[in-house]
Design brief:
With 212 residues, this protein is α/β, with parallel strands linked by helices. Helix content is 27%, strand content 23%.
Length: 212
């Protein structure tokens, strides 16, 4: 069977009327990869921080959420930013005093484009890859809000960090059809001469506030 025939066969199997073929094909996929991490939770957090720093992200560690507002304010001040985009679901006590707060209530692109930074929560994080996953519900905001501003401030609770990818995806809602966004450091790419350019597909700066 050629690659083209295999692809068309899968499409036909996925069409209504042939669910049994899809079920059989899915069940036949080998799953002999590592499914469970081996690190302690403390080691897992250390690995996550190490990956974030390696990706040039800034990491702010807090004991609890009472200092989140001040940590956000400091991250904005250090970046000389004063216009912050946020979801209406972001808790009031996490909102910093001082900067202009742009609350995203179905704002148009022009309004979103005024924001210099955005603050969101996350759904889950993966230590081994230094990845943060958003499902864009609640205080995670809409996907567009995490792509336009130059600076993404992401709030991550320590118990949201899993060691490896299979662990993390088991914790996601397997029945959800909501698109996810995966973030591994600031947006960056390199050209043929290996010149690294930031901000090509999203924020140039990523600040992770780790608490709990």
């Amino acid at each position: 069977m050629t690659a083209r025939e295999e692809i068309l066969s899968r499409i036909r199997a996925a069409l209504p009327g042939e669910p049994a073929a899809v079920t059989v094909a899915y069940a036949s996929i080998p799953r002999d990869y590592q499914k469970q991490g081996t690190l302690t939770h403390s080691e897992c957090i250390d690995l996550f921080i190490d990956r974030l720093l390696d990706y040039d992200a800034q990491v702010v560690q807090l004991a609890d959420d009472t200092e989140i507002a001040s940590a956000i304010a400091k991250a904005l001040h250090d970046a000389s930013e004063d216009r912050l985009l946020l979801s209406p679901d972001l808790p009031e006590h996490w909102r910093p005093a001082g900067p202009e707060l742009i609350v995203d209530v179905h704002l148009h692109t022009e309004a979103l484009d005024r924001a210099q930074a955005v603050v969101t929560t996350c759904e889950i994080a993966i230590a081994s890859t230094g990845t943060i996953i958003l499902v864009h519900a609640g205080a995670q905001g809409r996907r567009i809000t995490t792509l336009l501003p130059d600076h993404h401030i992401c709030i991550v609770k320590r118990d949201q960090v899993s060691e490896i990818v299979p662990e993390a995806f088991r914790k996601l809602d397997s029945n959800s059809t909501t698109p996810i966004t995966t973030i591994s450091g600031p947006s960056a790419t390199s050209d043929i001469e290996m010149t690294r350019i930031r901000g090509v597909h999203g924020p140039r700066r990523l600040t992770v506030i780790l608490y709990g």
